[in-house]
Amino acid sequence: MAARLNPLDLYDVRSLLTDEERMVQDTVGRFVDEKVLPIIGDCFDQGRFPKELIPDVASLGLLGATIPEKYGCAGMNGVSYGLICQELERGDSGLRSFASVQSSLCMYPIYAYGNEEQKMHYLPKMAAGEVIGCFGLTEPHGGSDPANMKTHAKKDGSDWVINGAKMWITNGNIAQIAIVWAQTEDGIQGFIVPTDTKGFTAQEVHKKMSLRASVTSALFFDNVRVPDANRLPNVKGLKGPLGCLTQARYGITWGPIGAAQACLKEVLDYTQERILFGRPLAANQAVQLKMADMARRITTAQLLSLQLGRLKDAGKMEPTQVSLAKWNNCRTAIDIARECRDILGGAGITVEHSAIRHALNLESVITYEGTETVHQLVVGRELTGINAF
Q1: Left if phi > 0, otherwise alpha if psi is -120 to 50, otherwise beta: which for 223?
Q2: What are the boundaries of the signal sequence (predicted)?
Q3: Residue 188 has pLDDT above 60, yes or no
Q4: What is the pTM of this model?
Q5: Could you say which of 20, 266, 369, 372 is catalytic?
Q6: SS3 for the chain, per residue?
Q7: From CA 83, how far away is CA 254, in angstroms rounded?
Q8: pLDDT score at 2
Q9: Residue 369 bears catalytic tag
Q10: What percent of the chain has pLDDT over 70?
Q11: What is the pLDDT of residues 7-47, one digit of tens each?
């Protein structure tokens, strides 16, 4: 019999990667297998973010991975960053969220919109994991309409005074700086706010049933004063934060592939060993049909994200293309995680298996960085030229 295909990569998408991209995937994959998977179920159960992994994540060059080496970063391409997200989320969405926020939502705006002094001051420390960032855009009254921003910054001499609140902020209570977007007389602008600034408060969100191995916070700004040197000078308007979100969403198209692969791998192993009615569960037609459909959807997601990455690296990626992949791949992963939980039966409801953890995490991933509905409407607008928001 000919060699079997890799059940998690039926189209041999790995063969389309460069040697360097494969090396990145293998390196992060080993880290996830050796350091993340042994502890992450307990972290999720305890509602604890594994901060002890930050030095390892930093030493592997996974923070700000695509930013040039002159700023202490790895200078990788977009596909490599995608593979990092895929492998980290194979471990847990919370760990990928940490790296995604640090890289795409905090380091990227400093790199893209900051001045040279800001870049040299912050980026090397952030790449080393010495300074953790959080991204303050979403507000308590609604996330899908960022233009309706209530947080404002007013000029006072050479300083800015910020008042307002942000909600659902990953890393909020472990961050040393916050990238805060606020309304000004010149439109929305971004500010680097040290979290020890007087008037800044972060309050951790508890009782979560999703992303339990991640820090989620509310941020409050009560006359928080920062110098003009902390303003990101090279962007004004919503295109600033939206540009960051496009970077982050790109990584999120890859992440759920890893979660889906983890669930399928677990079910493939489980159904070989679980004997029902005198034969392995894997010999059941209904189970094979379900797993075949999972493999089909994972393959589609892999090809979508790889082509998206190639477009990104060629400078041709459009936000609508990111929306299509984020919508498809998050929907794929959450459906697969739920189906795997079902196949696992009663065993599937404990964190001894990964399916329920991934399913619950993906409830957040399918919502944040643009809900499924918003991304569907983005694609619809592209098709018709009519904005239905």
Answers
A1: left
A2: none
A3: yes
A4: 0.96
A5: 369
A6: CCCCCCCCCCCCHHHHCCHHHHHHHHHHHHHHHHHHHHHHHHHHHHCCCCHHHHHHHHHCCCCCCCCCHHHCCCCCCHHHHHHHHHHHHHHCHHHHHHHHHHHHHHHHHHHHHCCHHHHHHHHHHHHCCCCCEEEECCECCECCCCCCCCCEEEEECCEEEEEEEEEEEECCCCCCEEEEEEEECCEEEEEEEECCCCCEEEEECCCCCCCCCCCEEEEEEEEEEEEHHHECCCCCCCHHHHHHHHHHHHHHHHHHHHHHHHHHHHHHHHHHHCEECCEEHHHCHHHHHHHHHHHHHHHHHHHHHHHHHHHHHCCCCCHHHHHHHHHHHHHHHHHHHHHHHHHCHHHHHCCCCCHHHHHHHHHHHCCCCCCHHHHHHHHHHHHHCCCCC
A7: 7
A8: 56
A9: yes
A10: 99
A11: 999 999 999 999 999 999 999 999 999 999 999 999 999 99
- What pLDDT is recorded for position 145? 80
Mean pLDDT of all residues in 58-77? 97
Confidence at residue 306, expressed as pLDDT on a 0 to 100 scale: 98
